[in-house]
Amino acid sequence: MITDPFPPAARPSMSADPSAQPGSRRAHRSALQWVPIRSLAERHRERIVAHLVALPPRDRYLRFGHAASDEQIAQYVDSIEFARDEVFGIFNRRLELVAMAHLAYERAPQLDSHPAMVEFGVSVLPQARGRGYGARLFDHAVMHARNRGTETLFIHALSENTAMLKIARNAGAKVVRDGSESEAWLKLPPDTLGSQVEEMVETYAAEVNHRLKRHALQLEHWFDAVNEVRARFAKGLVVASE
Which H or E element spans position 236? Predict the structure, then answer.
């Protein structure tokens, strides 16, 4: 049996993106493929719940290793410790959370046989598939983890979750399979000035992108409200003239 170093409450490690395309190493990704990935906080719990509840049954199974109910998903989200863990999200233009990743840092002391490590979990809604969001979130998580001095990224997944395990293998992770479950261990390089600057730039750019989306959505709602008032006014004039 594979020894599980994380308690059940801290095992958000299954991918719900069976169609995620494994990418090359981060340094080889084109700037044209940049995806704004935003850090999530305590105030985003409801959005995280809504995102995970929207996953189809098959995706819930891959994400949690069992057919998680709405109540179990809510309990998992309540257990996220934002002061310790890191959660990242990708929003569409209507500010819907379509993809997210959770880096669950293990409480000290960690296993004597393993260096400082963090567990990775990801999910992508069906309508956002085929855009490489799973791989992008993986790259983003690796950057954040190494910049915090973490030496190993850990993935616990069902062996049938070939997409997630392939992403891990392409990144150089060592994958160990034990029947229906697999573990992947990826040794992270130390942080550099370049990785620290990259994180700051990406964080700032993602925040700017989110604000622009929010302003665009507010304008859209404003125009919809104006058009509705115009329609009602025009209808009132027609009725008055009859």
Answer: helix 193-241
3-state SS assignment for residue 117: strand
Identify whether the C-beta of residue 184 lies closer than 8 Å to the C-beta of residue 222: no
Location of structure tokens 């719940």: 49
- pLDDT digit string (tens) for 177-225? 888 888 898 999 898 998 899 888 888 887 887 788 777 767 766 666 6
The helix/strand/coil state of 219 is helix
Q: Coil, helix or strand for 176? A: strand
8 three-class SS: helix
Residue with tokens 């690796």: 142
Residue range 214-232, pLDDT digits in tens: 777 677 666 666 677 667 7
CB 214 within 8 A of CB 91: no
Most distant CA pair in the chain, distance: 85
List helix spans (H) across 70-192: 70-79, 133-147, 162-170
Q: Token digits for 86?
A: 């890191």
What pTM, to 2 d.p., does this model score? 0.73
* C-beta of residue 48 within 8 angstroms of C-beta of residue 73: no
Q: At what angle do helices 133-147 and 162-170 cross, to 10 degrees?
A: 50
Residue 19, classed as helix, strand or coil, is: coil
